[in-house]
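Hello,

Following up on my earlier ticket. Below are the two sequence lines again, exactly as submitted.
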Amino acid sequence: MKFGIYKLYSASGSEWSWHLLPFIWPPLTLARCVSGAGPASKQGQQNEGYMLGKGGKRKFDEHEDGLEGKILSPSDGPSKVSYTLQRQTIFNISLMKLYNHRPLTEPSLQKTVLINNMLRRIQEELKQEGSLRPAFAPSSQPSDSLSDSCREAPPALSHSVAPPAHPGDLGSTTPLEACLTPASLLEDDDDDTFCTSPAVPLMAPTRLSPPALPSAKDSFSSALDEIEELCPTSTSTEVAVAATDGSKGGAGLAGTLKPEGLQEGRPDDPKLMDSLPGNFEITTSTGFLTDLTLDDILFADIDTSMYDFDPCTSASGTASKMAPVSADDLLKTLAPYSSQPVAPSQPFKMDLTELDHIMEVLVGS
Amino acid sequence: MPSHRVPSEADIISTVEFNHTGELLATGDKGGRVVIFQREPESKSAPRSQGEYDVYSTFQSHEPEFDYLKSLEIEEKINKIKWLPQQNAAHSLLSTNDKTIKLWKITERDKRPEGYNLKDEEGKLKDLSTVTSLQVPVLKPMDLMVEVSPRRVFANGHTYHINSISVNSDCETYMSADDLRINLWHLAITDRSFNIVDIKPANMEDLTEVITASEFHPHHCNLFVYSSSKGSLRLCDMRAAALCDKHSKLFEEPEDPSNRSFFSEIISSVSDVKFSHSGRYMLTRDYLTVKVWDLNMEARPIETYQVHEYLRSKLCSLYENDCIFDKFECAWNGSDSVIMTGAYNNFFRMFDRNTKRDVTLEASRESSKPRAVLKPRRVCVGGKRRRDDISVDSLDFTKKILHTAWHPAENIIAIAATNNLYIFQDKVNSEMH
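Thanks for your patience. The regenerated structure is below:
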């Protein structure tokens, strides 16, 4: 296909006049050329496409634009919530990127490094914010008031906590879509759903169980404390998962399981790594893996089986299913504890059988 | 195979490079093929066809391989092509995929000997009894045949994926860089290379930075630069030490606190670095900007140009769909007065360093009809919208121009848009200024 010589764009010497040389490569018919660009590019990249304008994505992107339109920093008051949400969303996306896809070729090390840096940064922030917590621990009165205000918030907060626990090794977009819910809920709720103290929305996930039922403090919350001490970076996710997992009968899991469980979990890492998807092995084979993400995978399997969601369901369906489940289950799991007289030895017993069960689930999946 | 071949992913162009005179233009694609174009010499008899590029040679450079140890495929995609300076009638180039670099020699054959004594025209041995006299074979012209042969294969030098190669000004050595290491090779020796940069940490879990691009200085054979995923540039002197882990100069711009976001690090990752032809400056491309650095000033770039600042508010979505990891290249014109880089929606941008003017152009068949002019495009971000403006929301992020090249002496540019190659020429200003 030959093109003619073109008219000059401008007679002025200072303007450029770029025009197409009589050259098109590859030499094709025009019809093929026009259709050529489309299929090739669409074939090549499944994840990319129009960023906005296609129905399914629009909600997410609108939501995203709303989140990221402003300059977000942790110090702003009302935008702290959206900052936290954005951070959570990015955290989820990052985990999904690392563990979701199964390339035939080695994944780009640069991409992996950048995503890991992102996760680390978010972890560091969570850790730093988590260090504010001790101020709220001692008195029961503030915790009651906190618990009241936090009860109002649970649906939104639980979302922000629960999704990271299952980083989507099911290979679905639902964890992402699940993240939509916090924002949409937030848009409906007012800011006063959250406590006046800016630190609470962050703290609440980690303290949700203890303040909610102060009487359960002796076994359950102390167990939570131990979990937090041992795994400070991922406290919010693990605690929530541990709590929600309780309904499965893994009551002892959250208990002193932690010192045994996770310690046992760590030597078992090599075993687990073999059973996990291939790309995971790639990242671990380069030795490039943080403890946090491994633990997330561990708890991820527990958590998702409880929710029992189909990766292909729509965003609204899944999200709405998740909202009541997490909050209600949380409360349900805590209720039995408060009524039972818990002996120190009991958690240990339940804990060993539960550990076996969990290990089976993990290794089997 | 049907004649109407559906364009496949293998046709996606992955690198574009002019040779040192601009006479030849090489492209590599995802399928491991290299296509070389040659500029037709200008002739008075056909003034309309002056300066056109035609296909000169096509060959398969790399084949897909399988790494049995890791159970992974090694892509045959050509990551980079670099021409060697021409030293005789033949042309040579280096082409590389993720793991292996190959040196190809391109020769022309336009004459062939005729009149052998022992063989006939078809090459069959003559019956000696029919040979009555001796003749001297003569060279007769034949149709031009371009022959390409692999002269060297530089394999097993890299554990990680090769992202750059650069030929040294000494014309004897070249370097290849992967994510964590840079090796120095001699063009004639394939069984060993020298490691000159190694940023691999003892514990891979401590890895936070990778090498993204590297290049030799155009005049000083001891100097080279490499860029990192954290946005820093390191100029190294090979005379200082055998292992150039310690940089001679570190070029880094402090982060702008008003623009801080979760994605600050990712968008600061340098995707390409190019020395100016003069050797005085460096050009870097990160996700949203191109920057010109003066080798004498490490603190900050001397010029920064916004390529698509309107994407800053979309970074989360671009992170989610992986576009934020796209590696755009950048290019100088021959006189170092204009810089060029690609963007999305098949747009590419040019910045005139002297007049500070910039232009956005589009490489698409629809907008390049006969007799049409390539008109500047504009992306509107809200506010007043002119008729032909494109809104940010309707940009096509699958149409990205990652690879561009500028003729070393003239205003001719080559733009790779997915599986199409466009060559544009500025007829008004064919001289550079």
